[in-house]
Amino acid sequence: MQSYASLQSDTGQRLDRHRAARIGLIDGAPPEHNAIDLTRAPLKELMATARNIRDQHWGRDVTYSRKVFVPLTNMCRDTCSYCTFVKHPDDPEAKLMTPDEVLAIAREGEDQGCKELLFSLGEKPELRYEKARAALAMLGYERMTDYLADMCALVLKETSLLPHVNAGTLEEDELKKLRPVAASMGMMLETTSRRLMKEGGPHYACPDKVPLQRLRTLERAGRQQVPFTTGLLIGIGETFEERIEALHAINETHQKYGQIQEVIIQNFQRKPDIAMANSPEPALDEMLRTIAAARIILSPDISLQAPPNLSARHMAYLDAGINDWGGISPVTIDFINPQHAWPQIDQLAQSCEEAGYRLRERLTIYPKYLQGSGDFLSADLQPRVSAMADSDGLAHAFNPKAEGAGQ
Asked: Are residues 308 and 328 in contact, defined by beta-carbon separation less than 8 angstroms?
């Protein structure tokens, strides 16, 4: 197992290398793309290159996952300046969901044809707050990850849904515990910039937002062969060059392990009740340049996603190289950005068709992990996933509950 000091050294050398080489020049990219200066190339040229890569690997299909969103707890030991999801344990809105509450949402999602259940939760609140520990103890647990694993198992037992876990940084033993009961997992890298951890920055006093800790989680997920989603948060004070560094870091761990199934490019959104309420949101051109850069830098087998509910002009993202819209729920709101409603799936499909694309539903785990040796999917989950997947590894156009896939 790689030591902390070794990984820290490797990470430092990696980022130094990206700074030293021209930030926009791509090592290991296809020959026609490896001389593009991402910082200075005309945006239209950059987007055309990204579209070409996308079309060659993904064709004209654009995917989404029909999901239900379960915010298992909104308590967290981090206090990011842009977050409206997290509540202090003393806040009346602070909550740890009970098993009955989890199942109620899960069953509603199942009835609406959802196939993914997204567990999203604050990071390790029990390590900081007595009230979080007490809430867990009331349910018979000491560690949030153990409760999360049992809730995944409950969902698998009682419904036909596939859990996707977004629990932040995870240790090796936590990944091992979750792997048999989660079809995929995720954690936004957000940034590799340590500047943002300084006093006054958005990640000040947030132990789980240390870039090294998040990079270590990506590495661990690779070693444990967990299909993993990650991504960048755009507009929280990082520079474009720092975004490029983060994309390189993601791609390098994927080259080692093959675990990164998708990368999300998510734009910061102002909200009235956050510390960054007056901070500017990223302009559309910033998003387009970053998306295009991501498509050029990342291995073409990594799916590239941008949320459709966070920009009225989200269809422009297709021109920059995305091939996926992420999870869309017909049941629950986006608890991370509650003021932004999900698009209607039929309307999104029509918009995609008008732009020359076909919208298709996928599962939470991507086809490439179903069509290989199966090492990235727990044996316990393989029969369920196989029953839900079509010949392309995407989602069958049926309600799995009606077909007995959850039995």
From this structure: yes
Residue 26 pLDDT grade (very low, low, confident, very high; cuts 50, 70, 90): very low
Burial class (CB in 10 A: 0-12, 13-18, 19+), 108: middle
Q: Write down the domain spans for the chain.
A: 4-403
Rounded Cα distance, 260 and 108, in Å: 30
Q: How far apart are CA 266 and CA 263, in angstroms?
A: 10
Closest CA to 51 of 290, 322, 265: 322
Question: Tell me: the pLDDT tens digits for 347-398?
Answer: 999 999 999 999 999 999 999 999 765 689 999 999 999 999 999 999 987 5
Instruction: Output the pTM of the full model.
Output: 0.90
Longest dimension (CA), the chain: 59
Full DSSP string of 252-305: HHHHHH--EEEEEEEE----TTSTTTTSPPPPHHHHHHHHHHHHHHS-TTSEEE
Question: Contact at 8 Å (CB) between 11 and 212?
Answer: yes
In words, the CATH class of domain 4-403 is alpha beta
Are 290 and 243 in contact by the 8 Å Cβ rule? The answer is yes
